[in-house]
């Protein structure tokens, strides 16, 4: 079926969608209940990190297995493969560019796969809190 919108209209419409996954919300609520205070999806920061603590230069991204091409769980779609290969490849490149940007700026970057949260939420929250604690200590010791 043909699209009723022009390419520009469709792009603008899709660009306005600001969905947050239930998994991302579950993870961030668990961190919040453990006493961590942060901001979610700060659009002024490059790559719109899922969680950010600007005071300590910490950004956390929750990556879905499909959209970010998880080496364990990514399943290549059977139709329109050329499009999807390009799309997922570019997403991976963008992730690497964003990571490099923050690291060059002296930030601490953590990427979490969705399967880690699904597998063991408590363990993922604990390891994230440890990462943040180490990053905060490094920041304070400057």
Poorly predicted spans: none
Largest sheet: 4 strands, mixed
H/E topology pattern: HHEEEHEHH
Gap between N and C termini, in Å?
59 Å
Q: What order do the strands of the largest sheet run in, or round the barrel if closed?
A: 1-2-3-4
SS-based class: alpha+beta
Provide the helix percentage: 40-55%
Q: Strand tally, please?
A: 4
Mean of residue pLDDT values: 93
Count of alpha and pi helical runs? 5
Assign an overall shape: globular
In terms of DSSP E residues, the strand content is 5-15%
Radius of gyration: 17 Å
Question: Can you walk through the features of this model?
Answer:
This protein starts with 6 loop residues before the first helix and ends with a helix. By secondary structure, it is α+β, with helices and mostly antiparallel strands. It has 5 helices and 4 strands; from the N terminus they run ααβββαβαα. Helices cover 50% and strands 12% of the residues. Strand 3, helix 3 and strand 4 form a beta-alpha-beta unit.
């Amino acid at each position: 079926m043909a699209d009723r919108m022009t390419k520009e209209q469709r792009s603008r419409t899709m660009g306005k969608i600001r969905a947050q996954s239930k998994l991302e919300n579950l993870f961030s609520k668990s961190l919040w209940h453990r006493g961590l205070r942060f901001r979610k999806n700060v659009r002024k920061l490059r790559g719109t990190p899922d969680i950010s603590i600007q005071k300590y230069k910490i950004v956390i991204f929750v990556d879905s297995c499909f959209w970010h091409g998880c080496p364990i769980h990514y399943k290549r779609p059977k139709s329109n493969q050329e499009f999807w290969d390009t799309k997922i490849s570019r997403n991976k490149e963008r992730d690497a560019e964003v990571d490099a940007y923050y690291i060059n700026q002296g930030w601490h970057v953590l990427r979490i796969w969705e399967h880690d949260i699904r597998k063991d939420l408590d363990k993922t929250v604990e390891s994230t809190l440890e990462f943040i604690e180490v990053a905060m200590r490094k920041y304070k010791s400057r």
